[in-house]
Amino acid sequence: MERQRPEFINGALKKGKIERAAEGLFDQIQTFAGYGFNKAHSAGYGLIAFQTAWLKAHYPVEFLSAALSSDMDDTDRVKLLLDDCKNFGIEIRKPDVNESQLNFINHGDNEILYGLGAIKGLGKSAIENIILEREGKPFKNLFDFCARVDLSKVDKRGIEPLIKSGAMDSFNLSRKEMLESLEDAMKYAKQNTMTQESGISDLFGGISESSNFIQFKKSSREDIGNSKFEFSALGFYLKTHPVEEHYWELKKLGTREIRNVIEETVNTISGVIVRQNRIQTRRGPLVFATLDDGTDRIELIISSEVLESFEGNLSPQTIYLATGDVTFEKDPQKKNIGLQKKMRVTDIKSLEVARIRSVTKLKINIEGQEQKDVLNIVENLKAIALVKIIHKAVK
Question: What is the pTM of this model?
């Protein structure tokens, strides 16, 4: 502002104004500059906050689909907005190569269709090519998809996250089976393209439609492991949850669903860490972590004493079993962000560690195995036993 003073006063003098009056006016402007910008800023943001709050209250589906689209490159922000959708009772439909657009779109009165642009590893040019190709007719299966898209734009690195995210579940094959068939599908597509370009198809009356060329059969196998696929493609669990995939095993280990925890008693629960915050106190580190099991969320308070007995860091892709006293917060707003229920953790361990500690016997079926394979199993068991003996001796 001081640099502007001479220019302002000189300008005023040229217009025939009194110098003292010009200086006094500039002093007022300088004083106002100290708080005027902040006031203008707060007024502008206040207006925007009011407008967006009104839109969110009256048009939540449209507002949240637009918000998700604007932040779809930020995984943490997308997770936060999806939690908001859940609080509003809005259903999020998984991505679909035959229906999804680049952005999130409202699909019906209370549904949002996941945008292809939020899938990791899938570029904009690839998405545009997929949308363009399906305009004539929908994709029927993986081989049909590979045969019709431009593989120079939609390559293997782009198709894999599509499969893992669930965008090809309408093809009636498990994601694991489609990943295993991907190489064959791409080879078929390339061979089909070369044949058409060479003109050989004219001699044999045309190439068979890819949908008829490969006969698909719906898999009777359960899609175990889809949660890991979703996490790698989306950065979080959208429609499948690792706790659901290990439900019976966790039940045998004595865990309770978070929605059914009992207040003021010791509970054992299981889930994955969706967010965590570590702070340093006089007594050592203290961790606040949100545990999710698909039914509800709970805030874990993990002291330095518990952390000392826990090996490694908390990973978002690992299932943990936590034991401790549970209390409920009275504030209903905290329920929306998973902070209404709290647990002071006395013990925490991964599912893998819980398996090892709880196992009492091991059954190995060697029926139909060749002798060399049986001998390999025996040698491996001896090696494991030797490691345990050495580990005990060192302790």
Answer: 0.74
CB-based burial, 329-363: b 16+ in 10 Å, e otherwise: eeeeeeeeebbbbbbebeebbbbeebeeeeeeeee
Alpha carbon distance 371, 379 (integer Å): 12
Indicate the residue among 20, 41, 57 that finishes a domain.
57
Confidence of residue 324 (pLDDT cuts 50, 70, 90): very high
Is residue 239 situated within a structural domain? no
The span from the first CA to the last CA of the chain, in angstroms, equals: 72
Q: 111-113 and 284-292 as β-strands: parallel, antiparallel, unpaired?
A: unpaired
Q: Could you report the per-residue pLDDT of 86-120, keeping only the tens digit for each?
A: 889 999 999 999 999 999 999 888 999 999 999 99
- What does the alpha-carbon distance between residue 231 and residue 233 come to, in Å, rounded to a whole number? 6
Residues 70 and 157 in one domain: yes
3-state secondary structure of 276: strand
Q: 125 and 86, same structural domain? A: yes
